[in-house]
Fold this protein.
Amino acid sequence: MTIKFQLQGTDPLQKTTDCLVLGIWEKGGTPTLTAAVDKASDKLIDNVKRSGDIKGKAGDTLWLHIPGKLKAKRLLLVGCGEEKKFDARAYVKAARGAAKALLGSGAKNAIIALPQLPVKDRSEEWAVSQLVREIGATEYRYDQTKSRKADPISLKTVHIAAGSSRKSLKESVEVGACTANGMNTARELGNLPGNICTPTYLAHFASKLGTKHKNLKTQVLGEKQMQKLGMGSLLSVGHGSIEESKLIVIEHKGAKKADSKPYVLVGKGITFDTGGISLKPGAGMDEMKFDMCGAATVLGTMQAVAELNLPINVTAVIAAAENMPSDRATKPGDIVTSMSGQTIEVLNTDAEGRLVLCDALTYVERFKPKTVIDVATLTGAAVAAFGDVASVVLSNHQPLAEEILQTSQEAQDYAWQLPMWDEYQPLLDSNFADIANIGGPKAGTITAACFLSRFTDKYHWAHLDIAGSAWLSGAQKGATGRPVPLLLEYLRKQKA
Ligand code: BES
Ligand code: MN
Ligand code: ZN
């Protein structure tokens, strides 16, 4: 992120700035600072509201130029909805609206007073963190593969006018900035096309991350090494591709005790999913370049973990492969042997995510993890059920599922749980192997998780199906950077 944030202690009215950002209510009174500015400007704000030029719905914005009266060159009014209903959702909408308007303007600096408004069940620290995250995420532009680069951002410095202690707010600024940076890293990797972002590219990226941060160490296993480990399931997915499959391991050692057990993240890194021999239909297939968004969010989260130097150990494992049809590709009916020893009948080569993840999930047993969370664009059924709003949580340990759901609310990065009851397990029965890789047309997200659950007996595990939340389609096509906020917030809460 290029924008600098400063905490503003003194009266924002006394400071010269390109832009003063103030909240207004759709219904209710007038926020204190807004009222002070209104008074100093001959009821300008009151008159504008009365005129109906801005209603004050959460996220509405209106620019006002007020020569002479104030030290601010202009005002940005930001609608915050109804005062009585001002909750985390409304706050984020307002912050996002403000960020969009500010970054779309020529302002070089600004004072933002939004975190002063009391958000239901949230602290001022939270509000500052969210604001910084929204500004950082709004700053993101994809231009790596365009010959015309994005215009540089004019906004250089943002002063945040908030009342709480400097020290705790300083940490909130850092958390918000690192969350945005992590999301933007995940988005950039997600948005890169399949011919650039290959398993080898992801491995290089992870290695660079490892050299950049002194508490991170990266190790990359190639196909030969995976063969030695017996990862027949993972390897079967990349068999049809000219790109070498990779297992990427990143360790963050932040705990005081070096041998403190790690929290483990596992990411699905299918850098392109054609479906393999069970070829996908052509329409919209380009979006399967996003099938490595699990890996991308894990990398973005590890970057943030390292930047914040969290006082815990975290290990990330990414299973990266390209799913292609060819004369060497795995065929429907082929049987592969996983690292766990369980044999798998590959009834559909398009159910490849679980095939790479299961070996990664067996591999991480060696770390004796405190918890394991895998992140994967695993099923179209998750998109059908939740659209792009929620990531789906399934878990073999209900307290872990509940902690993730709770955290998703706090981080405003929504997730919802589906059950993983035993009744679903028989759908994976195979006549020819220990387990089939598909469970038929019903309950697709659940049977995919049930498949993974066969490889996670040794630890507490949660699965995040992010097929809906990881990217947007249509005109706004692009990776979202989710669920980096959720994962980072979860890790921030953990103890060594
Ligand atoms: N990467 C896809 C899941 C996906 C599909 C995500 C569409 C987002 C949009 C995954 O590898 C896949 O193909 N899953 C199949 C599984 C099926 C064959 C059991 C699916 O969901 O259709
Ligand atoms: Mn697939
Ligand atoms: Zn896939």
Remarks:
- The longest helix spans residues 166-191.
- The longest strand covers residues 263-273.
